[in-house]
Known about the structure:
Blueprint: E1 2-9, E2 16-17, E3 26-34, E4 45-51, E5 58-64, E6 71-78, E7 84-89, E8 94-101, H1 106-137
Antiparallel strand pairs: 1-8, 2-7, 3-6, 3-8, 4-5, 4-7
Amino acid sequence: MSTFWGTIVKPGKKPTPLRKEPAELIMVLKQAALAPEGKSSKEASILSISVGAPTAEKFVLCHLTPGKCEQWAIDLGFGPEEEVYFHLSGNCPVHLTGFYEMEEEDEDGFEGEMDDDDDDEDGEEDDEDEDDDDDDDD
């Protein structure tokens, strides 16, 4: 199950947190786009991210420039325990969109089923190996 998520990062402000309150969901960031009201500026807006703390090292996600590159596709996932902050330089606000999704709990069960299947395949392979040995004797 997934749920829409969105926020607006404003220039010159303090870092914008990914989450305003603790959550138990994975957040997937999918797109950054210049806000329509800020496109009159020709200056690029540079969106950066820091993980762990607002003062942690920043990494650039994209440069958005009115009339040239106004939106950018992103595919980054963040676990529920990660502290993520967005930083913006330039004059134009940036809209971030994505979705929250639940962690897959079926993985352990799925792996267990595969283990059972592996045992069956091993048994079949052993039988086939014996058949192959018989063919070599002919």
